[in-house]
Every structure is written in C-alpha cells, then in structure tokens.
Amino acid sequence: MKRILAIILVLAFVGISGISSVKSVTTPFSESAEKFLELHQEAITSLRGAELASPMVYKNKDGKDRVIVYGVKKNEEIIGRIVVNYDVKSPIVLEFAESAPPHLLDIKEEVLNKTSLEKNMAFGNPEFIYVFPLLYFVHLNVYNKNQAVEDIYFFWNEKRIVTLTDIPDFPILANDKLPLMEQATSGSYKILYDVPDYTTSTNNLCNNCGPVAGANILGYWHKHGYYYLQHDWDESNGNDLITCLWYDMNTNCIWGTPASNFRSGIVYHANTVHSGYLGIYHFSAGGNSYPEFSDAVSEINASRPFGILINWNISSWHWITDIGYDSRYGNYICVRDGWGDGIVYINWYTPYLQGSISIDGFDYVYPGY
After folding, report:
1. 134 phi and psi, to 5 degrees?
2. In the beta sheet, which residues pair with residue 228?
C-alpha cells in the first residue's frame, strides 16, 4: 500500500521541470507539513502565504521509502523544503530549510560538473536518497545506447561523487512519536526557527562571520520584544546590524573577531546609545571554553541562541550560531552557518562543516531590560 501511495504522489504532483501545488489532495504527510506551515508563519515570516508543492518520495540506499520531501512555494517560487517521515501512523516533520529540495534543482547538471560522460552515454532519471539528519544523495544510472553500464552516487550536501558504501544507513523512525518542538532533554529536539539566517555575503566587510552570528542572535531578540536592537527595515538581510556589530566588535581583517570581542561587542550594541541605535537594555554575555552537548541543550531549552567559534586548523576560524539541538539519533547541534544554508546539523562527536572542525567554545548572550 505504501508503494502504491508513493507512486500516486509522485505521478500526480512531481515534475523536475515544473512546480505543482498539492492543495487538491490531502494525506497524513501533507497534513503534517501543512500544520508546520500554519504553526510557524508568525516566527518565520517568509512562510506567510506559502503552500506545499511538488512532493517526492526519497528512499534509503536499499530502495525503501523513507521520507516525503515537499517544496515550499510562494509567488510561484520555491523558497524552502519540508521533510516528513514516511510513516503513515506517525508522519512527523523532520526538517525545514529555507532552500529548495534537490529534486527541484538541476541535479544532472551538478553531477556533470563533478564527472564526465563518454560519447553516446547519458544519465537516467535521478533517484533521491535521504539519510537523517539532513543528508541527501542522488543515484544516477549511466546509459550507453539504452543499456545501464554504471551507477553514480552524488553526495548533494558536499557536491561530490561517492560510492554506495559511503552512504550511511537510515535510522529506524517508525517508533518516533515525538511531537514537533518537543523540549525534553533526552531523545528529543528543539529548534529556534525564528533566528535569522544572515550571511557573510551581505556586505564586503572582511572577516564578518562574527558580526553575522551576532546579528543572528540580536535579530532574534529584536523579534522577541527588544525592539531597539535592530531597525525594522533591516530585518530582511541584517546589513545595517552586521555593519554596526563589525565596528562594535572591533573586528580585524587579520585575526577576525576574538571571543571576548564577540561578547563585548554584542553587550555594547545592546546597552549603549550609538550609531543610530537606542541601546537602552541590560544584556550580558559569558563564555564557555569547554562546552558539552548538555550545555547546548540547556541554552536552547531556555530559548537562547548563542555563538560558537569553530576552526579547521590553527589559521582558519569561523563563527556560527547555535539555534537548536537533536538527540534522537545521536547528538547533533543545529546551526546557522553564515552561508545561507538554512538549518545545518553538526554531529557533536564528529563535527563536520565543509571539513572536519573543532569547537573552540560557546559564547552565550543573556537579554535583560
């Protein structure tokens, strides 16, 4: 029955080259996704007036149906994706991201950028694989005169060719009945979806990842009653707030933003009248050089996003913003990476973000009137 439902969904709604609404058909999966849209329109303003579009069933590497991935459409444009667990008895939302799902992108073109085909060879239709959390793979058969001669697997997150054995097994989700936004500290998750997703490409200021992370945090508190932290007209991309924080943090084009500057810059911005900002609050900040996963859980359960300084090596550092955690299938922190990738999951024990990383410390921000 599940196989039949999957085929009906795909045939009825999905076209790689087209975007189709799903309003005409209601399933337990679409009901779960629609509920997510309804519940989060106030926190995520871009979802106001949005609708589901073009669902596709993604499988695991063994070919078993695992999730249904919906595009989120607004004004005829795909603005995000929602992933729903493929379990008709418990169709919970596993992921929301503010970027299009792979099946609505030109995947074949992306794969061609990483490999080459011999004469008379062509790709078949892509098959999409999802591994919780947030890992996407694409399987393509290579045909030579209508005969399949090769299998190619493409790791969409990292834009590279992999083998079948590189694809992890999908964890069992059938017994997962946790409600959305469950806040228990064991086997649960919580994500602060209304933390902005500002990016370092917003302006040309050097080493601006620290100010971007700070703007994500203060932009969140601006939405939660601390009105004077940010100008309303600046909410869309945060450029003015990022620029102000770049100076408040005394960011340097050689060494960037040290942790102490990150904290003091945020406090200065929130508590001091300067540069067109009415800093009338009493914010404070603190650092943790030896953080544990439980520290992230505590902060997020208190609904406080915070900054994380990471590094790839002694000379490459980067600021990200923690907005959530997920401990259902391992210990993951959920972050804004400063590059506009939506919600990014990082495994606490094997942290990876465009390469293996070390977590240098947590930097907390405490609001106060």
Report:
1. 70, 20
2. none
Classify residue 98 by burial, with Cβ atoms within 10 Å: 0-12, 13-18, 19+.
middle
CA distance 129 to 140: 11
| Residue pLDDT, tens place only, 309-322 | 999 999 999 999 99
pLDDT in tens, 113-138: 888 888 889 999 999 999 876 789 99
What are the two backbone dihedrals, phi and then psi, of residue 101, each rounded to the nearest 5 degrees?
-75, 155
What pLDDT band is residue 185 in, cutting at 50, 70 and 90? Answer: very low
How many CB atoms lie under 10 A from the CB of residue 369?
Answer: 8
Q: Give, to the nearest 10 degrees, the angle between helix 259-271 and helix 209-223.
A: 40
d(C-alpha 197, C-alpha 237), whole Å: 8
Domains and CATH numbers, the chain: 1-180 (no CATH), 189-366 (3.90.70.10)
pTM exceeds 0.70, yes or no: no
Sign of the CA dihedral running 324, 329, 331, 333: negative
Cβ atoms of 285 and 279 within 8 Å: the answer is no
Cα(160)–Cα(355) distance, integer angstroms: 13
- DSSP secondary-structure letter at 172? P
